[in-house]
Amino acid sequence: MEGNNTSNGSHFEIPLKGIGAEAVLEGLKVRKIGDPDYKAPRTFSLVYYLGEEHTRLLCDAYEIYFSENALNPTAFKSLKGLEHEVVRMGVKLLHGPEEAVGTMSSGGTESCLLAVKTWRDYARARRPLVRKPEMLVADTVHVAWEKGAEYFDVRMVMVPVGKDFRMDPEAARRKINRNTILIVASAPDYPHGMIDPIEELGAMAEARDIPLHVDACLGGFLLPFMEAAGESLPLWDFRVPGVRSISADVHKYGYAAKGASLILYRNMDYLERQFFVSQDWPGGVFLSHGLLGTRPGGAIAAAWASLVALGRDGFIAHARETMEAARAIQDGIAGIQELQLIGRPPASIFSFRSVDAAIDIYAVGDRMSAKGWHVDRLQRPEALHAMVIPRHGRVADEYLSDLRESVAAVRADPSLKRQGDAAMYGMISRVPLRGVIRAEVMKMARRMYGPDGILPGQGDPSGK
User: Fold this and answer.
1) Whole-angstrom distance, CA of residue 158 vs CA of residue 143
2) pTM for the full model?
């Protein structure tokens, strides 16, 4: 069986005869060799792993509903009941009123897209003179909102962040106009882990009768338990009157199986704008609450299982562990004179940059990758990123030791910034003509999804 580093896929086809279950499973294990070791844990994003016991629970719950399809809520009624209970647990957790409602989605991106669609259609119904709808977002907002703006033809108006890396409320106020149909705030944002000034934005939105959506895909199942553990946080959820909708991923700090997210609204008048109904289709009357038709029942069941198995006490304990690990790593980074944390992130998501001209932060990232860590790179400003989970506490000292060694290695060898990913990321982040970057990324996408499926760094089997 071939490993995952061979991708000359144009010759692949379904085999004439099956190869047997044992060989299939062994082949999958071989393909995983070289992927990030999230169980170690040496991965700082993408995976929220609590250990084998919890993973086994998720797998078992998923298996019970493996073949069930949430396409038709009246078919598998128990599945719809599980989804309803997950939604109600989310509403209660985020201090929603009794009339608050919502649905599950396949992940944060779908939840964000649904919010754009919902508030666009809500504005169409109430404000028909708005022909070119706009939504205000900070330039640190998740890229899913840009995708939603493109998909649903809503202009995304960027609001700069202040020195604290949070959306500038005064700048937002100046950008509101007759076409503004939505304001989006983050709790927290992905790049730097900052919570936007939601109370101020909520008051502004309420005064102008503009919906405020809080993107809590990262923080929805972390911030409430941080607060319960004694952390002091600003108000950011439905306790802020202007907040009309919230997205929160259960498959992140809710530790559920992918993909499971919530999109919640203050009342049904808002949620109904999310629904799609076709009454004349020959296949029958059709109702869909989200972007997907077929939805895997296993993801819904696993989300329910994670929430009720861990319980509030379990989530509070994990939030406490997470913050202890995050602060240990943040304190260690603060002790490296060449590096600086970006902002004062209140949660466990943060980024850091170089403040020494001799230290290229992307080269530091390359050295960390060479030591087996999976770290994300950011731009504007150039930085490395970390998203901490409870298990990172056991490797915090090792991570910091390797980080110090990586900084020293880059100082000792300035040529490292001209090698590997450091050279590529450095070039990309500094090119002034961003359309050039877009064109190159599209070329890369064509290669990755073309007949040969060539990943970055792989050779072209055609020799081109």
Assistant:
1) 12
2) 0.88
